[in-house]
Amino acid sequence: MRLISADKIKDAVSELCIEANIKLRPDVLSALKKAYRSEKKSRARDIISAIINNAQIAKRKSLAICQDTGYPAVFLEVGDGLCIKGDLRKAVNKGVEQGYKNGYLRSSIVPDPIKRGKPGYSPAIIHVEPVKGSRLKITVLPKGFGCENKTQLKMFNPTTNLKEIADFVVQAVNYAGPDACPPYVVGVGIGATADYACLLAKKALLRKLTVNGQRSTAKLERDLLKRINKLNIGPMGLGGKNTVLAVHINTHPTHISGLPVAVSISCHALRSAIRIL
Fold first, then answer.
1. pLDDT reported for residue 216
2. Of the residues 111, 143, 175, which one is the last residue of a structural domain?
3. Which structural domain, as residue segments, surrounds residue 104?
4. Is residue 261 part of a domain?
C-alpha cells in the first residue's frame, strides 16, 4: 500500500489550476492552427489568429487565457493500492483556493445558488473514480460558464435512431450560436442516466483532440463534425467553416426504458491540466 499526503495533493491541485488557466492545451492550440490554415474567410482567419496570439501571450506573461477562469471540475482517479493520509476533499478545495489566489485568477463561485452572495474560490466540483494501481491521477478542468450555460440534456425514447441523436447534437450547437465563443469542442454523452450522461459529455472534453475515441462512435464523430461546420457560425460567430474543432463522444450502458443524451460545449479556450502522483 502506497501512502500519499493530503498536502501533496493540495499543492498539485494548486499548480494545476494555474497551469490550466494560463497554458492552452497543446492539442487545442494545434487544432486552432490547423483551423487557421483551412479557413477561407478573411474575418474568420483574423479571429483565429487573435485567439492563437492571445493564448501565446497568456502563456508568456503568465496571465489567464480568459477573464472567466471557470468553475473548476477536478477529476481524481484513485488507485486501489493508494492510501491518502488526510482529508481528500479538503485538500482539493484548499488546492483550488490556493491556486486561484496565487495565480490572480477570478473568484467566481457564489455560496448560494438562489441568494448568490460574495463570490469565492470553492468548493470545486470533485469526481472520484477508483482504478487499479497505486497512483493518483488529477485532472483539473476550469470550464467557463459562457459555454457551460449551453449544456443540453434530452431523454430520448429507447427506440430513437442515430439520426435523431445526431440532429439533437447539431441543434444544441446551433442554439449556442456565437454566444459561447466558437470554434467549439463538443462533448457528447450517450447512455447511463441523466446525471451520468452529463458527466460523460464533460469527460469527453478531456480527450486529446488528436486521439480517436471508441470505434463504435468514430464515424458519428466525423459525421457530426462535418454537419456542424456547415452551420457557418464560424469563429466568434462571424461565419466560416470552423464552427467546431472536434466532436468527442462517450457512451455507457443504459436502462431498457430510456436513452439519455447530453451535450457539453467548450469554448475555444478548452483548458485542462493533468498530474500523476
1. 80
2. 143
3. 2-23+65-143
4. yes
Contact 266, 223 (CB under 8 A): no
Query: Quick one: 113 and 228 in the same domain?
Result: no
Say how many C-beta atoms besides its own lie within 10 A of residue 177's C-beta.
13
My answer on whether 221 and 166 are in the same domain is yes
Average pLDDT along the chain? 96
- 238, 149: one domain: yes
Distance of CA 46 to the CA centre of its chain: 25
Instruction: Show which of 83, 109, 143 is a domain's final residue.
Output: 143
Residues 6 or more apart whose Cβ sits within 8 Å of residue 130: 78, 79, 80
Residue 213 confidence (pLDDT) = 66
* Interstrand relation of 184-192 and 244-254 (parallel, antiparallel or unpaired): parallel
Condensed to tens digits (0 to 9), the pLDDT of residues 158-212 reads 999 999 999 999 999 999 999 999 999 999 999 999 999 999 999 999 999 976 7
**CA-CA distance, 242 to 68, in Å (whole number)?**
23
C-alpha cell of residue 1: 500500500
Beta strands in the chain (DSSP E): 2-5, 71-79, 82-85, 125-131, 136-143, 152-156, 184-192, 244-254, 259-266, 273-276
Question: Which DSSP category does 5 fall into?
Answer: E
Pairing relationship of beta strands 71-79 and 125-131 according to DSSP bridges: parallel
pLDDT at position 71 is: 96
Would residue 146 be called left, alpha or beta, if left means φ above 0 and alpha means ψ between -120 and 50 degrees? alpha
Residues 220 and 161: beta-carbon distance below 8 Å: no
Residues 187 and 106 in one domain: no
Number of domains in the chain: 2
* Pair 115, 166 in one domain: no
